[in-house]
Design brief:
4 copies of one chain form a homotetramer. By secondary structure, the first copy, chain A, is of the alpha/beta class. Chain A has 2 domains: 2-63, Alpha-Beta Plaits, CATH 3.30.70; 83-332, Aldolase class I (TIM Barrel). Chain A has 11 helices and 14 strands. The first copy, chain A, has helices spanning 11-23, 45-49, 107-120, 144-157, 171-177, 191-199, 214-226, 254-261, 270-274, 280-290, 316-332; strands spanning 2-5, 27-32, 37-42, 59-63, 83-85, 88-90, 96-100, 124-126, 161-165, 180-183, 204-207, 232-236, 266-268, 294-298. In chain A, α7 (214-226) links the parallel β11 and β12 (232-236). The radius of gyration of chain A is 23 Å and the shape is elongated. Chains C and D meet through α6 and α7 of C and α6 and α7 of D.
């Protein structure tokens, strides 16, 4: 921790700051520059993280040296984490595509969609049983019934499944039905939910919050890892900016930044980022080109009649076409799909 | 709902769009302009809200006419909602100040702080027992014990209390101890929690999400109101922008915009917005001047030793000075405090 | 400058970094922490500011200690700069209001508006002769003719005037006609224009860029000051965020932050921030309450027929009402108006 | 134009609105819905664009139907614009790479860099003679001398060149030396400069502003086109958001959105977007995969000693490696490089 002092800090103030730091068991190094004096606190920085040092008289600013996350950092574990789900590996050389409808609406459409995305090369099926909707008057998902449809479809079509949990009270039930638990954008900082999910041993797909920094996404992953669950897949899905041409702004740079900062696999959801189906193919290609380990794509057998997010769902034929190009892009960057 | 067609939409496409809208029970009006044809869908717009009309071939864009919220809108109820809590009115001519520490740390400091903020003119005590923290390694609150300290302090000092709920499983317990339930920034779109809180009859302090629009804040309030609980206090607490000089950017315009859009009371939290105690007084004055119905201010008897948010907490003496000026500002704009 | 090394930096890399810093004439202090080694470069930090130290192998991040601006900083000059324009002081105890139409459209409306804002208490007249417009097809201002109307009005009504310069080629002409030169939002980082304006001795009203940080605003002021012109009035006018309820988001916190960081006067333009006339009064009151030294408000004798920004212009009667309340708010915070 | 009325608009207000619209020569269609009345103004919408209709009593909101740009829109011209510069085509099937140093520092490094980027496959050389710098104390470019070096290098190495204009007074000179005129990020809304550049017949590389919407970028292109110059290359270079892991957030979605909205070529500058050389390769690959027509990449023979933006410059070897992969990515999406 580096503490930069105000240019007019008094000796008494400096002494008080030094006392505080030493009192916490850290060593102190004072460096008097031409214009500013700075104090270095040497030792376990996490002890200081909770201290309101900025408030001490004479302090201009406090600059942490260490990263606030540990278990999920590349420094802690240099090798890529590869998560094996029923023999399919996420985080390795092979790029994995998760596809399916936004919400589970009925068994027939779910199975039809599942068969088609599997045929096109998707390795996982997505589908929401519990849906977070901005409006209380919108379709909220089929809940328990939806979970059953998901399991039926998994058995019939043979794709492992991903579904979202919104409430700690549903977690046990959802764990029985799903292969990967999704934490949605709006729950990325639902810390109680993160803790509960961390206590399970299920793989977790953690979506970045709409206005969360990459650092905060990693801190949320740290919550899960701190409970002993390190099977975490990070998902960039667009952030909120001033631009309104797309629903969110896909932060494509997050992919290489995350690959550098963490050993966890990183996937991209171009459907929610764009909010328009016609932008999904270019964003999906960009994601693979930038180094993503996978994609989460909304596909619906009949988007015109979807109860949720039909606007951003690809028809199965379009998805099939896209997969063919994605395969080439993956190869161009040394991956397979 | 206005549907703007692409300049090259075919008659077949137009007919298909008209059929879809009529099939939903709405009337249609087609207007052929010089450059664009537009279709007006007349009737209950909420029927259309869920339909992915943008996806229909020939459609360029869809523009809703109505607001997506209803119960909380000024159109639904023209008069200001005034919430009476133990005889103290929020939303009326009198500006109310809620003050206290970020988190409850021990009974002594809580009571000391409570006495001092009461003496300075605060009418409610705030204090967190369950704390959402970015880091899993940070102090997470005293939980049940904290709630007991809060109730003890309420009895002893005589201020009604506000505390945050983060998890539906804690709601029943928290309701026993608090006068106002706070929904924090990170839970503004925790829709399950909103629904549960809506089923209680406790006043709710709903904080705006870091990257939530004013419209989304009102949609979250609508979730609570839709369950029958209309005692909702909205709280502007800063939004996330590119500026880093303050922790968040206080969106002061949200105050007059909300006062126009909704009948609910609107308060401001300058402490979390600024993230620095020295910026709290100017922002608190600005909030009252802009028409806020109240303030939520962090005050701590010993900020240097606070376990949470000490950096942004005012000392009781500073709070007392501030209250004196706030009283004058309130009078300048025709309010009392 | 603090250089934090990667956890696996080699001794060879460290030596190379130290050599580079010493080669620039600075002293070096190496501190080996438990987890990270950091290097402090001691001496004239501006020498290092231009060096791409981040690119050196083994460097994780570089953290500057000093602020990049100097002449405009509060550290350089502790006392408030007060700018005297024809006997009217900006930056002192008295809050000053600049009012008038967005653009000069004809002599009659300008003089009518000028007389009315003067009667209400405004001390300066604003009016654009050269207008930056998003659309090439929109009214671009009366240019030279507008400047003549402005001078006529100044003589007749007796208010010093403010007008915008967009192009270095117009500067000489504009200087003949105006008392304060305005640099608009879109030109805040037009560095050539800043330099030219810095060479004049006219007071400059420098508006913050739509997406400029406070630090960048101060750097742009430094451009002007570096040429010898220190009569700079900073203007917060709203920043671009995701919120669309108002045209920009007024960053009210910028007022106290700037008052702390710099000795220059700080004013607020609530009209451009809000983009709607009905939001101007609450924002104007908030600005004064937060400590602004003045306001820039659009007033038009007939907003319905304004050629530019009519939507955000106050009618003279509304402005008069507002000024009465602003006077009380100014007094509440120890100022006059 | 659609005008939505307030729910309590009076007949008198409605009549006044209708009179205003008819008075401007447009036809009116009134539609009374269940909850709201809306007025459609039919005819030349640009007549209304300048009118402050929102200010008329009884109006809730005004929704334009048409796009504000015309000449640059895909509706105006369906086929891709292909710009031919000395036989090299920008906007066609071949992806073009522009590479070179941020600023021209001396003839030797410029020529060395130019030879190397040419050998790697770049088709244009970039290099700044006039540099916009945030700090007045930073290197501002070699100016006239730099232009001479650029021309010398062009002759010697045989690459057409791109350089930036910041001031209308330099335009004539720069036109003599360059093949493509660059308008930088900070000048995207320097409307006077856009107009002057529009009067030349030189190809223009127009960079998106840091906080400019895609619509505003197109409006700035319209300024140039309105003067008769349609040789405009649009450049996405990252926007300002809350994320600080990269200097800007590359808005990769802007590529497909622009390709749909306009017939102009679209390129991407990954160097300025990332602000770190190690992120340039993944972003460059993503740009090509998303459909960009070209790239603008900073390459410097000795980044450690660059006077400007060394942190984000690739070494020639790294650039060469990158070009090899970019070629494969281009082929994967049906392009060549």
């Amino acid at each position: 921790m580096i503490i930069v002092l105000k240019h007019d800090a008094t000796q008494e103030q400096i002494d008080h700051i030094i006392d505080r730091i030493k009192g916490l068991g850290l060593a102190v190094h004072v460096s008097e520059g031409k214009e500013k004096t700075i104090i270095g606190a040497i030792g376990d920085e996490s002890v200081l993280a909770e201290q309101p040092l900025e408030i001490l008289p004479g302090v201009e600013k406090v600059m942490p040296i260490l990263k606030p996350y540990k278990l999920v950092s590349r420094e802690f574990k240099a090798d890529d984490t590869i998560i094996d789900i029923e023999g399919i590996k996420i985080g390795g050389r092979e790029v994995q595509v998760i596809a399916g409808p936004c919400s589970i609406e009925n068994l027939e459409i779910l199975q039809e969609t599942a068969s088609m995305v599997k045929a096109a090369g998707a390795r996982f099926l997505r589908g929401g049983a519990f849906k977070p909707r901005t409006s209380p008057y919108a379709f909220q998902g089929l809940r328990d019934e939806g979970l059953k449809y998901l399991l039926d479809t998994k058995k019939k079509v043979g794709l492992p499944v991903v579904t979202e949990v919104m409430d700690p009270r549903d977690l046990e039930l959802i764990c029985e039905y799903t292969d990967i638990i999704q934490i949605g954008t709006r729950n990325m900082q639902n810390f109680r939910l993160l803790t509960e999910v961390g206590k399970t041993r299920k793989p977790v797909l953690l979506k970045r919050g709409l206005s969360s920094t990459i650092k905060e996404l990693l801190m949320s992953a740290e919550y899960i890892a701190a409970e002993g669950n390190d099977k975490i897949i990070l998902c960039e899905r667009g952030i909120r900016t001033f631009e309104t041409a797309t629903r969110s702004t896909l932060d494509i740079s997050a992919v290489p930044v995350l690959k550098e900062e963490t050993h966890l696999p990183v996937i991209v959801d171009p459907s929610h980022a764009a909010g328009r189906w016609d932008m999904v193919p270019p964003l999906a290609k960009a994601a693979i080109a930038s180094g993503a380990d996978g994609l989460l794509i909304e596909v619906h057998a009949d988007p015109e009649r979807a109860l949720c997010d039909g606007v951003q769902s690809l028809k199965p034929e379009k998805f099939d076409e896209l997969m063919k190009v994605l395969r080439k892009v993956a190869e161009a960057v040394g991956r397979t799909l």
